[in-house]
Each structure stands twice: as C-alpha cells, then as structure tokens.
Amino acid sequence: MPLSAAHADAAAGDAKGTDFAVAPALSDHPAFVPACHAVSGTDTSLRAMTAREAWTCNAGAPRADSPVAWLRFDAQAWDAEERPRHFFTRSARHRSITFAALDADGTLRVRSFAEEEARPLAAGPVFTLPLPEIRKETRALIVRVERPHSVPLLSEARLIYDVEDAGWSGHEMMLLAMVIGMLILPLFFDVSFYVVLRERFVALHAGMVMSMMLYVLFAGGLVSVFWSLPVAFSAVIAPLSWALGCGLSALFLAEFLERDALSPRLRRLTVAAGLWTIVGPGFFALQFHWSQPFDDRGYFLAMMPAAFFTTFAIVRAMMRGSRSARYLALAWAPAIIASIERALRGLGLYVGPSSLDQMLYVATAIEVIVMSLAIADRFLAIRRERDAALTEARMLEHLSSRDALTGLMNRGALEARFDDLLRQGFDTFALVDLDRFKHINDRYGHQVGDGALIACAAALSASGDRDSVAARLGGEEFVVLLRGERTLERAENLRRAIPLRIASQVPGLGAPVTASMGVIELPRASAHALTFEDFYSRADTLMYEAKASGRNRMSYEKLTMFDTAPPSRAQAKARSKDRSKGSRAAA
C-alpha cells in the first residue's frame, strides 16, 4: 500500500513577500492566509516577533520541526469595517496556540489556548479558535504555535469572519460519506469469504478495509459529524490507522500472491517491511511532544521500506505471470500516485489546494473495491484447486484401499475398518478360498487365473446390499462380512454362486472352479471383544476343515466366546476325519 497520513494533508495558499492572499471560502466572506512565517525556540517572546526582520515572507511552506512556529497575518488583507473573529486550521497535534493582536502603537492583546480547548468542526478535519479583539488600529495578528506536529497545521491556517465559513463544502463531505459506504460492502464480502475459505489473506484484507475506514473517518473529519472528539485523539487515530493499513497491505500482498509469484527471500522481506510499517510509522503517529522535532518527517521516511518492497514485489510477480499481481497493480496504482502527491505536500516540498485531499480518499475506495474483486477471483481459483485436490485425494485413497485386480477392498483397508464394521453389526465372518487354484494357473496361465479371481469377486459382491462387505485378502483368498438375519444361508448362497459366475465369465476351463468357506458367527454383543486376527484365525481353521473334508463346502461355527486359542490347521486336519457336525457339502 502507498504512503500517506493525516500528517500529509495539503499545504494550500501562496504567500509572496508581504502581499496578502485570499483563499476561497464556503460563503461570500473571504478567508485570509498568513503573509509570513518563522520558527524559534521556546524562549522567543511575542514582543521580539513584532520586528519584521524576524519573519520569512516568501512562497515557501512553514516548518513543523522546531519547538515554536510563528504565523503573521497582516491587516491589509481584511476589510477596514469588518474584521476576522476566528482562526481555523487543519486538525493536528500541538501543545498550545497563542494569538497576539498588534496595534499601530505597539499594544499587544494576547489570547492563548491549550490543545484540548480546540473546537473540532463537523465540516472536515479542522478546528477553530476565537481571536482576540481585532480593532481598526490593529496592524497584524501574530500566531504562536508551540510544538506543531504537522506542516498542514501551519500551511492551512486561516482567519475568517464566521465559524460557518470554515471547513469543507457539503459536496466534499458527501464524497467522504460515499467512500465510507463503498468500503462497507467489501468488508461484508471479506467476512463471507472467510467463513467459507479460511485463508489468512482474507482476514488481512478485512483488517486493511477497517483501517482505511478509520482513516477516512478521522483524516477526512467525517467522524466529527457524529461525535465531538478531542483534536489530539483524531490527529493520532488518522495517521495510526493509515500506518496499520499500510502494514497490513504488505502482509496481505505476501499472503495473497501465488506461491511461485515471489521468491522466498522477497516474500520474507515484504513481510518484514509490513511489520516495520505497523511499528515504525505507528510510533511516529502517536506524536509525543518530546518527539515533535522529528516525528512528522520520520513518519514518511519510515513508510519508504513498505512502499519499495510492495512495489518491487508486484513488479516481480507480474514478470512471473501472476494473475493476482495484475489485480494489485490496478488497485494500488491510483493510491500510490495520490499518496506520493500527499507526502510531498505534507513534507512541505510544494503547496497545492486542499481539494487534492479528495484524491487519496477516492483512490482508497477504488483500491478496496478492486481488491475485493481480486479476492473473489482468487476465491474461485482456490475452490477449483481444492476441489481438484480433494478429487485426487479421494482417487488415491480409493486406489490405496482397493485391490487393483478385483476392485474389492484390500486387506489393509478391511483391517482399518474392522472395528467400525463390528460396531455396525457385521458379526458374521466368512473366509472364502478357491479350490485347486494353483492348478488353474499352471494349466491355463495367470491371465485365465486372474479372470477367475475377477469373476469370484463379482459373485461375492453381486448382491450389492448394505448388509454384506466383500474384500480380497490376497491370492485366491476372500472375506465376506455379513449382518442381519440368515447370515449363514446368505453366505452359502454366495459360495455357490462362485462356480456359476466363473463358468459364465471364464469359459473353457473344462471343470467347475469351486470354493471352500469357513464361517464364524458371533453374537453382536460379544463380537467387539475379538480382533480381526481372532476372526481370521478361527475362520481359516474352519475353511481348512472344509477343504480337508472334500472341498466345495462350508464349515461354520456359531460361538459365544472362546477363551483358548483356536486349533491349528494340523489339529483341524486330524479332527476333520471324524467331524461332520457343522459341515455342509455342496449339492
């Protein structure tokens, strides 16, 4: 974000030699500008400043870096019959303002006001003070400003007849109100975007918008329409909010630009410049009286790192083809130009009309609106990127959890989900193994064997109901988990469907490819006490018993719980010769 602040409000008017100048006012009454200016230490008296040789009477801007600044208004400027009664100027910090009306006989009528006695107006960033009596014989009005913190406090000082003649026009105040209205909508956008897209750059932009709103309210004096605040408070909040906004802008840029738009080093430098802008200019914006000799100039100089690195970062990002950088360039170009102009006037390097102040407020509104469009564009891009990434992640997860040949869940995925499946009621565990599968591979080749495996998987998952889950453990070994009623009968139906499906999908095998099955059925209340390995080990033993009993059959057990380890395959082989209970041969 470009540099600026309430410090930099315009230095207007043109005082040449001892000739007076009349500035345009809101009514038919003229407003009178100083003819001369001077600076001194705090020990210089009002009487010493009555001598003309003490003054500088040229077109140069007054200085705000000395303990005391002086302004001189000559009597030739005002009408002999109607004389000014009020002083007004730009709101800025100071310790006190003293007026001395100098008569022709050397008499001085003095009136002094502390900073807290200044009266802010609801017509721009200005305040007024009453003058001592200006008589017909008054030859000059001398103004002593102790500890001035801003050049515009001096360069925009005016004498007027009525308080109504001070401040900005209604059109100018209406423009400020429109700018505030234009800033509110992007703030709502930021809040909405952040709810959906928790990106840091959205929160940073919301902080920028709120800072700019504060700046327009206080630097433009619009806040005085609603509240009568001390001049010192308004004079601090305006530059402080601008420093905060500029710092957040640099942080926003570092977050908003695409990852490959900036080198890591340049991104870190931009972040450092943003943090410095919040701390450095933020300190000078506080305007302590002891820092008065250098805080005005220090404020602008401390802004330079952020201005340089943000501009350089945008240029570099555009060279790398960044779409976001093009939005930033479009949004910030008007604000950069307006704030440079404001800084030059604020430092007293040239004078210009106060109407130039409106440039930065309008540029601020343009910046915020364009950046809101940029955030919306980036929002859509990130959503597309995230949707694509989620789709890819789902695909990878699917591939990692599925058997590449059959498409069924693999063993790792089944084990990971096993406890959850038990809680869902899948308490029947059926282990399936194709009979004499090695013979098929050896005689017909692995391609035919793969076809048989695919057909077997299709048979086990053909029901497509939500009460059965099929998985391939490896080789010719499969598992089916079932829940609900008649699970043994449904498991046997699946086993019997395997030869039919293989025969229809893999012709030319010469003989049916059968399957043996070992089934464990456990009451749901007890199922959670067993692990996958417990189920597998028991079902594997039963399945081996089915093979030992002649293959092409199912062997099952309905358990309550078992306390000892299941029998080994050797024990099952010896036991299968005389065991017929619980075994069912294929029809």
UniProtKB/TrEMBL annotation:
EC number: 2.7.7.65
GGDEF domain: residues covered: 425-559
Entry-linked Gene3D superfamilies: 3.30.70.270
Residues covered by region (Disordered): 563-587
GO cellular component: plasma membrane
Record flagged with keyword Transmembrane: yes
A biological-process GO annotation: cell adhesion involved in single-species biofilm formation
Transmembrane segments: 173-197, 209-229, 235-257, 269-286, 298-315, 327-347, 359-376
Name used for this protein in its record: diguanylate cyclase
PANTHER family reported in the protein's UniProt record: DIGUANYLATE CYCLASE DGCM-RELATED, REGULATORY COMPONENTS OF SENSORY TRANSDUCTION SYSTEM
Pfam families assigned: 7TMR-DISM_7TM (PF07695), GGDEF (PF00990)
Keyword Transferase included in the entry's annotation: no
UniProt xrefs under InterPro entries: 7TMR_DISM_rcpt_extracell_dom1 (IPR011623), Diguanylate_Cyclase (IPR050469), GGDEF_dom (IPR000160), Nucleotide_cyclase (IPR029787), Rev_trsase/Diguanyl_cyclase (IPR043128)
Molecular-function annotations in GO: diguanylate cyclase activity
Enzymatic reactions: 2 GTP = 3',3'-c-di-GMP + 2 diphosphate
Keywords, ordered alphabetically: Membrane, Transmembrane, Transmembrane helix
